[in-house]
Structures are given as structure tokens and as C-alpha cells.
Amino acid sequence: MGMKRIICLLAVLCLVLPATAAAEQHEYIGMMMVVNCKKEVSLREKPTANSQRLDWIPYHAVLENCSSGYGDYYYVEYYGTPGYIHGDYLAVYEGDPEMAYAYPEYYEVMQIVGCPEWTPLREMADVNARQIARVPLGAVVTNCLYYADDFTYMKYKGMEGYVLTEYITLGDGNEVQPELAVKYVTNCNKEVSLRKEPTSASKRLAWVPKGTAIEALDAKDGYFYVCYEGEYGYIFGDYLAYIGYIGDYAGEMIVANCEKSAPLHREPAPEFGMLAEVPKGTVLDGCYEAHDGYFYVGYNDIFGYIHCDYLEVYSGENSDYEQK
Known about the structure:
Strand order of the largest sheet: 6-5-4-1-7
Largest sheet: 5 strands, antiparallel
Strand content: over 45%
Radius of gyration: 30 Å
Number of domains: 4
Order of helices and strands: HEEEEEEEEEEEEEEEEEEEEEEEEEEEE
CATH class of the largest domain: Mainly Beta
Helix content: under 10%
CATH superfamily of the largest domain: SH3 Domains
């Protein structure tokens, strides 16, 4: 009887072991991409839903050294970190390997273009995904993760979702051309209203102090769309003046060609007020070319503009001059 039992056990093992070995075979796939999620998926320590989460992997991320054979999960590596992701959120990456790890471009504000009246904001990056809202032509959207050939993630009136990239732009020749520029709050006593909508009857979200520099996107009805301390809203254009962007680095410069001092202006134009008088002979470090003959400089932690008529390149020969 003992010999028969041993023979039976060996026969069972011969049947079980090949099946077990087959179950543990893993197929190498290579590169895969995260799909079918709202924003991100979990990278797990083990191929189970209850396993520890190692990281959040964003939508559209490309993964290396992927292989199957872990139940519903796949083994993946994300920037050197190994783990497991459920197969429902993965697809074989068929794009250009050189472009696989390109991050999406981030834009603070963009604008809807190219659609008849509106375009759907979808829950996921899929034309069949649930529609969250209708985003009208010309609407301003924020916090955009821009993918050139797919959907773009964005926020619109507090809602998060995806819009086809073909319907969104920074204003490069499409039907709606927003102008994103640095503006300066002016023409008010102390502050102006940041409104929820581009109308004076809309709810006030915040008071924006005079002198505040903000990025502004031309919206409609004379209003500009801005972000102030994390709050998005609209300010009427009469209370905003154009500053522009800072140009090339000019190095150290010295205040000269004046009787006692040179005016440091808030903007590259004298009509917008003076911040300080900078004494003749003061050496200014970190000067940048600006607009209309002005240079952007810093003086005693005050930043503004001095006209080139009052500045010369500092050669280091005038050791008696004070450096700021």
C-alpha cells in the first residue's frame, strides 16, 4: 500500500507542477501607457488591490519593462520604481519611443476655440466618457495639462475634466486670440474688485490692492481673466495697465548722468508713479532690459524701472560707489 501511495502522489505532482509553472510564466511586453482613468492610477507594491500604494501614476504616463502574468495586474517600472498596475488602466505604447517620456506642457490659462458653440468637458480622456459640462466657445480654462495629440486636462468653473486638444489654444492664430500679459493694477484709490464673472454685478471674490502685478488674459466685455493668490476671476480692463516681459540680462549698472538721484518707477513709464529715488553712483546688480529705453532693476529690495539715460554699464573702476 505504501508503494502505491507514493506512486499516486508522484502522479499528482507530475500533473500539478507543470500547471503551476505555466501559471507563473510572464510575457514581456515592453512599454505601456496609463489610460482609462480620470487623472492617475495606483502603483502597488504587490499585484493586489489591497497592497500598499507606492505612488500615483498620472494619466498618459509611459511605463517601462512591463510584463503580464500576475492575474489582472501587470508588472511595470515607472522612472525606475517597480510595481504593479491593474490591466484595465494600461495599453501597449505604440508611439515614438523618443517622445515616450515627454511631460505634458502646463499652462495656467488657456481658451476654447474651433468649436461651433461649445465642446464637452469629459470625465475621462475618451470620446465616450461621461460629459460633465459644456464649455462654450471662447471660455477661459485653467490648470491645463496639454497633450498635443490627445485630450487636455483642465479646470472649468471648479469642475475637472478633459477636452479634445484641437479645441484649446494659447491664441496662436485661431478664431479667438487671447493675449496673456503681465498687467499692473492701477487707476484706483486702494484696490479693485476681483469678480466671479465678467460683469460688475457678479460676486466679488477678493479685493486686489493697487500696484499688484498679475498675469491677465483678455476675456470679454472689457474684462481680463486673472489669478490672484490662488483665486481665479475677472478685473475690468480700466484698472489694469500693461507692464510687459523682462528682456535680456544686462549685468551691473551704475546710476549716472543726474544731479543727485534717478527716479525708480513702478512701470517703464514716468506717469505710473515713482517708487524711490536712487542716489547717483549707486551700483545696481541684476539689471534687465525692459521696454521704451528702461531697465528693470532692484534697489534696497524695491524693484522697478530706471530709464537708460540715468544708467551706465558698471566697469568696477569706481570703488567709492555703493553697491545695492
